[in-house]
Amino acid sequence: MAKRNKEIVYLKEGIAPGLFGQKYSSRDYRFEEAWGKNMFNSSFPASLVAYMGSKGVDPVFICTDKDNAIVHKSISAAELLGIDPLSENAYYDYEAGYFPYEQYYTADNKEKIDLVMIDRSANNPLSGLEVKLTTLPDSTTKDLPDAEFGSEIVVRSPTILFVACSICACYDSQTGKNKLHALLNTIGEEIKDWSSPGRVIPHYCKIKTAVLNVSSDLSKKQKPLILQPVWKTNRSLTDLEDNCLDVFVWSNLSVIQMALREAEPDDVISRNQRTIIWLYKMLWDFSLYGKFNYTDIVNSLAYTFKTDKAFAISGKQTNPMMKCEALEKPRISKYEIKNIILGDGQKFLRPERRFDAYLVSHPELFV
Fold first, then answer.
1. 10 with 16: CB under 8 angstroms?
2. pTM for the whole thing?
3. pLDDT digits (tens, 9 = 90+) for 40-90
4. Measuring CA to CA, which residue among 320, 313, 312, 311 is closest to residue 149?
5. DSSP bridge pairs for 332
């Protein structure tokens, strides 16, 4: 392993370490620090998308229809990122603020999103994406047939903020706010204490219906939000399958469906249900005031849970939403990883997650 220093270290035949397609990035892959901690888990997926785009392989776009049912479409790399990922004007900005959304909320600190694609020619942000590199299968589906494999997904609280902002952007006029307010019904006026579970639970079904009404109204205006690459292992979770990599993209509206994969509330509010309540309150306040206080909503509507994450769903819950040929047999092989990680960059990895560890322990993939 090359030692960390400020000199560019060429690990392989004079080729600087790098990732496919990322000519301009906020991370300099020639240096070891760009491969550390959780950086690889967002930078590798971006290059996987670029590589798939170069081969004409489109990610699976998980959307909803007018009836809020899950539907699959395809989305090209350029459509997903807002720019051809191999363009000279493509700039990959990681852990960055997504300015188009910041006008819709106030907070103690503005939230950063995993990947912002920027047009270098105009310094213009084109897309903002959360990135989740996930294992296929997870522990709940590893003993099932391949077609029933699924990945666990953990959704951060800021992701719900981004869902809300993406919806606000579609109603960003007085006429739009009035329409949104009407779709949300009068529930916001009926609840006098949003911090009290006992005051909110009786209204939860109406809250959910109102959120679904908004989702139905926007079914033709969906935006990609979560970039979810999967890496498929064998059933013992010890080795990559030959066909192991693919990319799924969740729209802002399909994230709502993630949160709804749960039973109705009894006498307590679950994390999933709290997510729907958060989203409703953000949209309700926006319809009234043109902004919402993200920090206040998340903290005052915690309902006994920590607020570092919104919710998590298991592979058994994601499988029905992700089920397709690409899930059963991913379209990128493990022998193509060397085309995505360049210049022996894998030697800079510090294995903190199982995918990193696998790559480091299998040097034959890079020969």
1. yes
2. 0.92
3. 999 999 999 999 999 999 999 999 999 999 999 999 999 999 999 999 999
4. 320
5. 245
